[in-house]
Write a structure and sequence with these properties.
Elements lengths: L1 H7 L6 H13 L5 H20 L6 H13 L3 H26 L2 H24 L1
Helix pairs in contact: 1-2, 2-5, 3-4, 4-5
């Protein structure tokens, strides 16, 4: 339960790396069968997730869970997932900002985007 609190209350963009560092400090960097099993389980979930990811259902989520299991053992992957968390937060914040706009401003924004796309397509055709 303490591990869950560490992740939940961690600073976005550093929470997984801090968790990995805390675990490594507790284990003293020793080799253990548990570490090998977590790594193997993570790889298995990634392979299964990639194999069934095209089917409707939780395939992609299995791969993400597998990455998280491996990230617990490899700090570089933990750093990458921390950056991915920040990217996802920015995307969600942008979508929320866009969805909070009035309907008329959304339509104006969409038309402006379409017009700029059409102009860039026309410019490519002129070359």
């Amino acid at each position: 339960m303490d591990d869950y609190r560490t992740l939940r209350k961690g600073i976005p963009g550093r929470r997984l790396r801090n968790y990995v560092d805390k675990r490594r400090g507790r284990q003293g960097g020793r080799f253990s069968v548990g570490r090998v099993l977590r790594f193997a389980g993570g790889l298995t979930l990634i392979v299964i997730g990639l194999g069934v990811g095209w089917l409707p259902g939780p395939g992609g989520f299995l791969a993400i869970i597998g990455l998280a299991m491996i990230a617990i053992e490899i700090p570089i992957i933990a750093d990458t997932l921390d950056r991915f968390e920040l990217l996802c937060r920015r995307i969600v914040r942008s979508v929320k900002h866009f969805s909070c706009r009035s309907r008329s401003s959304q339509i104006k924004y969409s038309k402006a985007t379409l017009n700029s796309d059409e102009q860039s397509d026309n410019n490519r055709g002129d070359s």
